[in-house]
Specification:
Length: about 210
């Protein structure tokens, strides 16, 4: 009886643990998604349109106008361009190194932090499900070892618990894994566009 009560407590704890990490993983995934969506240019056409918009005021040495254009756009590339224009006197090569550091610190560090939690949930959920499987099978074998009449209903309950926790762990991990990989594709595209955009902006500043 004591072991049965203990198994029930552990079973509830496993269900709570699975629910908690599922919510935490989804929460971090949503934050990363929103961060990427609000930070990146969707395609090269948007990037080229932005570079063309600031090229004219920079060419005319109307830096205040270019700064105003960049300041109105909170995406990563305009903010990096804003920093480059405001620090143009330091030299293009030095500014280029600083832009790489700012992009990493201001944008990628938060994204990497959140994605690391998503990866942790992806790895942890099946393991917690496996723990539930072990606990369920222990309950089933404990029922068999009583030496009295076996409670087949209780045994079926324990086996069902074992299967449910395994399924829950996989049901949490697989969608998060697919979603994380989809976001990683967008992150790589964002990095490529930012790299191209920084090169274009610095080229404009270098020529002026």
């Amino acid at each position: 009886m004591r072991f049965t009560f203990l198994f029930e407590i552990v079973g509830y704890a496993i269900y709570v643990g699975l629910a908690a990490i599922a919510i935490w993983g989804a929460f971090n995934l949503i934050l990363v998604w929103r961060r990427v969506v609000t930070t990146r240019f969707r395609d090269e056409e948007e990037l080229d349109a932005f570079v063309e918009a600031i090229d004219e005021p920079i060419s005319a040495k109307k830096y205040d106008e270019a700064i105003s254009l960049c300041g109105e756009d909170r995406r990563a590339m305009p903010q990096l361009a804003l920093y480059a224009i405001m620090n143009r006197e330091q030299g293009v090569d030095r500014v280029e190194r600083q832009l790489a550091e700012r992009f990493q610190l201001d944008v990628m560090s938060d994204i990497d932090y959140r994605l690391s939690w998503v990866s942790t949930v992806i790895k942890s959920a099946p393991m917690i499900g496996l723990l539930g499987t072990v606990i369920g099978m222990m309950g089933a074998f404990a029922n068999l070892s009583t030496g009295t009449k076996v409670d087949t209903g209780k045994m079926a309950e324990d086996i069902m618990f074992a299967l449910i926790t395994t399924a829950c762990g996989l049901a949490i991990a697989v969608p998060l894994l697919l979603a994380r990989e989809g976001i990683n594709v967008r992150i790589r595209k964002m990095e490529d566009l930012v790299t191209a955009g920084v090169s274009q902006v610095l080229e404009v500043l270098r020529l002026r």
